[in-house]
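The record is kept unedited without comment:

——
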Amino acid sequence: MGLADLKKKKKSAAALEIELKKSEEKAAEMTDKYQRLMAEFENARKRNAKEQSHMYDVGAKEVLAKLLPVVDNFERGLAAVTEEEKGTPFVEGMEKIYKQFLTALDGMGVKTIEAVGNEFNPDFHNAVMHVEDENFGENEVAEEFQKGYMYRDSVVRHSMVKVAN
């Protein structure tokens, strides 16, 4: 082997080293792009799942808001039952249907908002009257005119209340 052959080998080894370095840089760049794309995909998947859940909750709240007047009418009807009518099969059947309806709402995550005796909270209560009454504390709910309901952690309908003092 002559000097020229050694120079060629050195040159080709240096060229190979440069080519290897470029390939490693290209592989690192591609790996970085791949990881970024995977992160973007995962974020988009999570965002989509969150939006779907939110849309489900919005739809459920709309349906519940339309069903709550039915609950109110059941309560009004059952409150109007006289003592003589209380033991009749019709009234007992209506009470069972009402209880079944409430159980179904409870199973869906619907809860009533406690009002009477609690401190007035505008996040949960809608004050429609104010009364001076020494039997109640300051800013305390004295009477509930219409029940309020929550679905999971959000208010479907505020309680319509009378606030004392």
In short: The CA atoms of residues 41 and 47 lie 10 Å apart. The chain has two helices and six strands.
